[in-house]
Amino acid sequence: MDLVTRRKFLMASGVTGAAALAAGAGAMGLHALFAKAPEQPTFNDEWVKQGKLVIVTLYGGNDGLNTVIPYTDPAYRKARPDLAYAPEDVLRLDGEVGLNPVMGGLKQLWDSKQLAIVRGVGYPRPDRSHFRSMDIWQTAAPARPIQTGWIGRWLDGTKAPAETAVSFEPVLSPLLVGETRAGACIDMGGLRLPDGVTAAMLSAFSQAEPGEADLMARVAGTYADLIRVDNLVQETNRTVPASSTVPGDSLPGTGTGGADSLTSQFDLIARCVEAGVPTRVYSVSLGGFDTHAGERPGHELLLKQLDGAVTGFLGRMARSEAGKRVSVLVYSEFGRRVEANASDGTDHGTAGPVFLAGPAVTGGLYGDEPSLTDLDDGDLKVTVDFRDVFGTVLTSVLKADADRYLDGYRPTPLPLFSE
Fold first, then answer.
1. In terms of residue numbers, what domain contains 326?
2. Which residues form the signal peptide (predicted)?
3. Model pTM greater than 0.90?
């Protein structure tokens, strides 16, 4: 094959879906392209016993005060009289806070001590920009912009193959991007090729060429990886049936976030775990949380889908030993302001709750409840650094040295997981 033609194809490919990373989706540079790696065995005893993590991103800034509700605090109702929930409607967790009324499944997880809620989570000197704040959460680097995510750096450190971390979102987020490794971005409908490009052509372009620069060879290697990972997922789709037991409204992601319903994304993860796909970290998302106006109906619909998808998934995972090793982390880029705006909504804020759920989780409330009267320019003050949560997940679920992957931050461990 002509080397110049091949190079031009690799630089200008329009492949989408599973090849989003190789095509440069999300304005990522060549450093983000994942390296070719050997196959991993599936369904061995070691893999079954390994912790597995599902990271759920709620794009738009979830209103934490109407998710984990301080129903006894008079400042809550004073700040948002038309948005506040009455104490009798809240699913009470203790004598001070409770869950939104539509989150009955998560309340059951709470009652079974499989739901941990970390309150007041955020980062120093908050930024109210969606883009910058999400970048900070996914890179775990609030002080300066960097080009790698905290999971991506873990992939680098473990020299992991592409299938170790998989995203079922439209493009690969910075979360899964490292310097030398990156996760795989898999389209829910399978690999889609541009007109005139066949799978055979793509396979040919992935072969090494004599005299080619190392960097271009890495780019070519990504095509072999994406074909392999896409085949792995599609084979799972064919051999492991979808479950009809995962509840939740079929609400498409709105705004930034997964194009398919969260339930559909979780269903595919469940099938991957059941089939022994050698993935340790999955990334899924739900958009639509930028609730500036008419918040309550739309917010309840989104929280209902989150509740049904997470609890249905964990119920299904409880049927297998590998599934019992799965933990779910739910976060959003920021919370909302304490006071409601004039449009029956809330504007961009700062701190908010983070959820962790699963059999390995030690259920309960963690972190101090932020004050609704001692505010920072109308916003909640952060009581838990988000890197303490991520560090605990790295240590407890992925069995990693968290200090290596948090850009110089030394996390304070939280007792979120049983040993």
1. 44-189+249-404
2. 1-27
3. no
